[in-house]
């Protein structure tokens, strides 16, 4: 039996999972680490924390499993995207990594937009200039920490720093590199034009691979430390969402997934590159060679339900303790007792502004149609429906771009709610499924390493062999048209309030 290791370097911790070639979990270990916020809007992490967590979780799964090191055929790494790791010529980390959720780069983004133009940026990188992405962070260091910038010899993403620790290779792969705003996304290579405008040395950036290609091999010192064989392959791996796509089998046209975590993501695979000229959704290279994915983001998805729970559901929290169940289970049951449309109450989930489709940081949450007859349970149902309408907005943009979304997986905390899955099935008007494995990105990069090791001949073949469907929620023919009426009204509310949101922000 062949075994592979999937490492997922997240924001709260790194999780390492040892799988067999059928995708069965043999052993798993997570180690957490802190995030540093030296100023409001700043977010940083220490790359040494990621490296220590990876090394110790790999050692732990090897020790737990008792699997022979000769049987471990490869390693794949998934990671939080956009983080900036800078090394000097001796490979010392020059400063803490500025990570994905850091918002300090507003001036740099304005400069990039002015210098290159939004249209040109979208044409090359498939996205407008964004504060969270890597290029703006590099420019921030150049503008604010010149003494650090002059020592830079290498620039890596979080997971690619971990690859360097394992293999001593400077490399990246297309899915994660797409989030740097330095990659020519249609042609899957660094953009000489942008590197020239931004005055970033191309030699600082790693070689770009496809996600399932072998990028390096374990060094002897690393192999001895980890209890693995020298020369064990390390493949390209993937950015977190691209890794989750492979882990849920989203690797062919028509396939997509919806994640309801703090934010919500709708992610679709496409073998033809498709770029939204308005920049409402992100287009990136997929972890499948010569394919792309399109991603819409709703900022306040699970966050809306958590906000409602924390402020209005103390009774449910107490009852859940006595019953030994999750409070979200009780909240689901309450919302279930209310009809579609929450007795004519609608909710806009814009607690944190909105990305897809409005790109409006001033947008805010709204209950629309509130009357004296409404109780907490109607508000609860309206929150869940409002998040579902917002996710349908993402799907509508995909449809405008001629991207077929007919096979939908659901994941994340919200994906475990049968009620939420039924709302999505009715609003998308297609079946919504869950995968039997909950390992997402770690399984995805493990599958990529199986392809790199020759266990499977292609990424779709690996997905077909390993990824299994657990539950299937079919759309309900009776409720689909009811939701449609409420969704069309929901779509009219934001345009009517757009100017008022801007006025509110100035008060």
UniProtKB/TrEMBL annotation:
Active site: 240
Domain Carbohydrate kinase FGGY N-terminal: 3-247
GO biological process, one term: D-xylose metabolic process
Keyword Isomerase: no
Residues passing through the membrane, by range: none
Site location (Important for activity): 8
Keywords: ATP-binding, Carbohydrate metabolism, Kinase, Nucleotide-binding, Transferase, Xylose metabolism
Reaction(s) catalysed by this chain's protein: D-xylulose + ATP = D-xylulose 5-phosphate + ADP + H(+)
Recorded family membership: Belongs to the FGGY kinase family.
NCBIfam families per UniProt: XylB (TIGR01312)
Record's protein name: Xylulose kinase
């Amino acid at each position: 039996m062949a075994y592979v290791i999937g490492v997922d370097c997240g924001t709260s911790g790194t999780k390492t999972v040892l799988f067999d070639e059928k995708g069965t979990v043999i052993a798993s270990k997570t180690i957490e680490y802190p995030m540093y916020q030296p100023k409001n809007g700043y977010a940083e992490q220490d790359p040494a924390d990621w490296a220590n967590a990876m090394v110790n979780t790999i050692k732990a799964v090897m020790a737990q499993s008792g699997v022979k090191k000769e049987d471990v055929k490869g390693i794949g790494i998934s990671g939080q995207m956009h983080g900036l790791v800078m090394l000097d010529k001796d490979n010392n980390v020059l400063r803490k990594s500025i990570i994905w959720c850091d918002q300090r780069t507003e001036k740099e983004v304005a400069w990039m937009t002015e210098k290159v133009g939004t249209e040109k940026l979208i044409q090359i990188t498939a996205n407008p200039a964004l504060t969270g992405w890597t290029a703006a962070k590099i420019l921030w260091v150049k503008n604010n920490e010149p003494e650090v910038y002059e020592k830079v010899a290498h620039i890596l993403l979080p997971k690619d720093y971990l690859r360097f620790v394992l293999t001593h290779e400077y490399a990246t792969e297309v899915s994660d590199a797409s989030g740097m705003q330095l990659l020519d996304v249609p042609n899957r290579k660094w953009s000489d034009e942008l590197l020239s405008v931004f005055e970033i040395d191309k030699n600082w950036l790693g070689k770009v691979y496809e996600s399932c290609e072998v990028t390096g091999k374990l060094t002897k010192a690393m192999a001895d430390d980890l209890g693995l064989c020298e020369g064990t392959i390390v493949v390209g791996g993937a950015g977190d969402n691209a890794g989750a796509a492979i882990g849920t089998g989203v690797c062919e046209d028509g396939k997509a997934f919806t994640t309801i975590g703090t934010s919500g993501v709708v992610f679709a695979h496409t073998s033809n590159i498709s770029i939204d000229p308005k920049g409402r959704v992100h287009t990136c290279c997929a972890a499948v060679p010569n394919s792309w994915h399109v991603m819409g983001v709703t900022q306040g998805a699970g966050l809306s339900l958590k906000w409602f729970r924390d402020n209005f559901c103390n009774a449910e929290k107490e009852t859940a303790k006595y019953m030994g169940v999750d409070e979200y289970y009780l909240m689901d049951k309450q919302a279930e007792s209310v009809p579609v449309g929450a007795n004519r109450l609608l909710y806009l989930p814009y607690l944190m502004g909105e990305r897809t489709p409005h790109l409006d940081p001033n947008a805010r949450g709204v209950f629309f149609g509130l009357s004296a007859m409404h109780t907490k349970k109607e508000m609860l149902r309206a929150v869940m429906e409002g998040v579902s309408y917002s996710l349908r907005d993402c799907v509508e943009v995909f449809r405008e771009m001629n991207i077929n979304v007919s096979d939908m997986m659901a994941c994340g905390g919200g994906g475990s709610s049968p009620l939420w899955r039924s709302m999505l099935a009715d609003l998308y008007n297609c079946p919504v499924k869950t995968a039997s494995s909950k390992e997402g990105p770690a399984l995805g990069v493990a599958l990529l390493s199986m392809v790199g090791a020759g266990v499977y001949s292609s990424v779709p073949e690996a997905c077909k062999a390993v990824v299994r469907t657990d539950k299937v929620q079919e759309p309900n023919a009776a409720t689909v048209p009811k939701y449609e009426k409420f969704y069309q009204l929901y779509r009219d509310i934001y345009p009517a309030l757009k100017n008022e949101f801007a006025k509110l922000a100035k008060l």
